[in-house]
């Protein structure tokens, strides 16, 4: 008979298969909890998972138990009510201890009304993007802006003391001392051997003048060896710096949104999902991503995320105020030579009629020459207005860096996002 013995050590996450089965089985409940968590979270708060709770009654499963089997005779002491063959009435289920999963009230112990567990960051994002055909993102910048960085470029004999290479300088000094001492040491060794041979001769045959010359030569050679400097200016080596272009690894994302009376909270929730996707998209490409929130009605202001999404104001809409503010922020804090600039704008399409032309001129003449990408989403089921038509002229002039789409409901967010960036990524490949 052949025996198979599995001697592999138990690795981490050995229950991963069972966990995936559990997540798949209760996907509906988990997805509902994840959607609620997304609405509570900040856009940048994606470095952790989420604690999810599921009602216990929704995960209850039948349990099979083995009975004792066979015929048994049991004597219950103190039994005054029942005889053999009597049927015991089933408990009504109210009161008494309340086990796990029971919904009845109890004055003993603790109830277990829900089952809680934690999703990892990857699992959390999987449920955020569930049912959405998010394209495969290339792990490289959409556009590498070159900035100059001083890097080491070998060694040189001249330089400033702050850039001296001690290790290389000592190595050069050691090599120089070896090279300069070698012939002197050979001559010293020969003189010492000749002196020893002369002193071994018979005193009658020994030449005192020769002995004196050899001793003088030995003393001169030893002084020459001692005179060799430990380190010389010839030995010094300095690190050499050269200007090398480096791809910029930092990006800033401007979130621009209309907060006038026509933008409902549902519109803002849809915009938040779109901004979240764009932030995650940029986070895959850049080491550092900063967010700037600009809200506008008739006037534009830079605000924090809480005020950006959950504050509502009344009044008209002037989009050019937001574009002007974005341009001023770029000039003041984010020079295009050092930052990769992205703008995402969400609106319901309303704008002052005379302002749409101004928006087009601002984009064409000032913003688009500096930006890597501009994405405009119009959240409305109605026909397009003047702002959309003016933006179409901008898209025709900058087809590679300006994109615009319409979103009717939340189900359109991910397909629209895919369309906005599909052409860009296909060209990079």
TrEMBL record:
Residues 93-106 have a biased composition (Gly residues). Residues 83-112 are annotated as: Disordered. InterPro entries: UPF0229, vWFA_dom_sf. Belongs to the UPF0229 family. This is UPF0229 protein F1978_14605. It comes from Vreelandella piezotolerans.
């Amino acid at each position: 008979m052949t025996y198979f013995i599995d001697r592999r050590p138990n690795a981490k996450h050995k229950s991963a298969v069972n966990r995936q089965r559990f997540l798949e089985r209760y996907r509906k409940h988990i997805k509902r909890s994840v959607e609620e968590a997304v609405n509570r979270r900040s856009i940048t708060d994606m470095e952790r998972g989420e604690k999810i709770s599921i009602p216990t009654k929704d995960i209850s499963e039948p349990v099979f138990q083995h009975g004792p089997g066979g015929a048994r005779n049991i004597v219950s002491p103190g039994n005054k009510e029942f005889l053999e063959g009597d049927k015991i009435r089933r408990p009504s289920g109210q009161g008494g201890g309340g086990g796990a999963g029971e919904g009845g009230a109890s004055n003993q112990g603790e109830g277990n009304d829900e089952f809680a567990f934690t999703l990892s960051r990857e699992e959390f994002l999987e449920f955020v993007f569930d049912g959405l055909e998010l394209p495969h993102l290339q792990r490289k910048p959409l556009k590498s802006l070159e900035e100059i960085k001083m890097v080491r470029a070998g060694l040189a004999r001249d330089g400033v003391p702050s850039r001296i290479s001690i290790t290389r300088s000592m190595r050069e000094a050691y090599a120089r001392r070896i090279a300069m001492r070698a012939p002197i040491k050979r001559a010293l060794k020969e003189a010492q051997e000749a002196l020893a041979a002369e002193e071994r001769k018979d005193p009658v045959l020994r030449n005192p003048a020769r002995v004196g010359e050899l001793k003088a030569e030995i003393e001169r050679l030893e002084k020459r060896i001692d005179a060799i400097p430990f380190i010389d200016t010839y030995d010094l080596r300095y690190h050499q710096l050269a200007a090398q272009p480096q791809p910029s690894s930092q990006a800033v994302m401007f979130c621009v949104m209309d907060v006038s009376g026509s933008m409902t909270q549902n519109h803002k929730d849809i915009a938040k999902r779109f901004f979240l996707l764009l932030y995650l998209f940029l986070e895959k490409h850049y080491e550092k991503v900063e967010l700037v929130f600009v809200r506008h009605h008739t006037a534009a202001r830079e605000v924090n995320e809480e005020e950006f999404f959950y504050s509502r104001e009344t009044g008209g809409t002037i989009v050019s105020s937001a574009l002007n503010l974005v341009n001023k922020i770029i000039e003041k804090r984010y020079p295009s030579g050092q930052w990769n600039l992205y703008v995402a704008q969400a609106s319901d399409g309303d704008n002052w009629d005379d302002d749409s032309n101004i928006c087009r001129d601002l984009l064409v003449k000032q913003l688009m020459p500096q930006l890597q990408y501009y994405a405009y989403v119009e959240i409305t089921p109605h026909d397009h207005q003047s702002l959309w038509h003016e933006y179409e002229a901008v898209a025709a002039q900058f087809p590679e860096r300006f994109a615009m789409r319409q979103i009717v409901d939340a189900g359109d967010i991910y397909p629209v996002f895919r369309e906005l960036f599909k052409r860009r990524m296909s060209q990079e490949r």
